[in-house]
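Look over what follows to help learners.
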Amino acid sequence: MLKLANVGPGDVVYDLGSGDGRIVIAAVKQFGAARATGIDIDPARITDAVDNASRAGVADRVRFVNRDLFETDLSEATVVTLYLLPWLNRKLMPKLMAELKPGTRVVSYRFDMEGWRPEERRSLNGESIYFWRIPPRRR
């Protein structure tokens, strides 16, 4: 997902439904993102993610937030990754369009955004990874 989004220095990555934090940690440790934030509604997963980030030596460049992703401001993200169920993706689409700046990259593992045509789609272990960019605002 991070490779498809071409994550690098200067990027601010948000992982929605971040679980144990592996995407957030990899974004800064392996891809050189400036910062990364994981959002998860499960406090136990946040605890695991914080511990994993500390062990990985990246706790100073990542944060994990125990919050409903629909109540989280995503506007600073340059890359958003997600592995959410199709109905959540559909519900999330208006929020992404409203809050993310044009050009922000969005990558979804396994499930697409119904009605959004991906710029690219790759297969990994029999599963699809979808890539979009937020388009310019209409005037």
